[in-house]
Amino acid sequence: MLIMVTALSLSSCDWFRARLGMPTSAELLEMKEKARQDSIAREQLRWEEAQQRHIQDSILRAQALKQPEMRRYHVVFGCFMVEGNAKRMMDKLAKDGYEPIELQFKSGYKVVSAASYNNLQEAYSAMNRLMGSVPFAPYDIWIYDLKQNLHQ
Fold first, then answer.
1. 8-38 confidence digits (pLDDT tens)
2. Residue 141 lies inside a defined structural domain of this protein
3. With 0-12 CB in 10 A as exposed, 13-18 as middle and 19+ as buried, what is 40?
4. Which domain covers residue 120, as residue numbers?
5. Residue 108 lies inside a defined structural domain of this protein
6. How many domains are there within the chain?
7. DSSP 105
8. Residue 85 maps to which CATH number?
9. DSSP code per residue over 127-141
10. For residues 33 and 29, what is the distance between their CA atoms, to the nearest angstrom?
11. Looking at the domain assignment, is residue 40 inside a domain?
12. 80: Cβ contacts below 8 Å, ≥ 6 apart
């Protein structure tokens, strides 16, 4: 028993851990450091993605300000029969940095467009980004093609 107590007091826990196949103190420290580095890398990636989204949104806003009536595809945020509702949507978009356009449909509806593009793929990409970035964006945002000729 004296030999056992001496052996236990002279050897470290790491010796027993290694014999049992468990990680030693040094290995545990390495694992913690790797987890910390992974966490930092994930946060850095999230930050970079947020910056990229911000840049893309800024580009979208700049594009929306360039002669929107001349572009073929419009990202529609709402279709309203009541003028006041259309005005409120236009005010929200303008407050968020967009230059909204109101298109008058032949049916009497007022359509509020947040952005317009000459390329359909760009319009759909913008629509998807706007759905995620504009806090008041309705779930029924859609694309209107001027060649449908539903407007006046």
1. 555 567 766 777 788 888 888 999 999 999 9
2. yes
3. exposed
4. 58-148
5. yes
6. 1
7. B
8. 3.30.70.1070
9. HHHHHHH-TT--TT-
10. 6
11. no
12. 86, 89, 109, 110, 111, 112
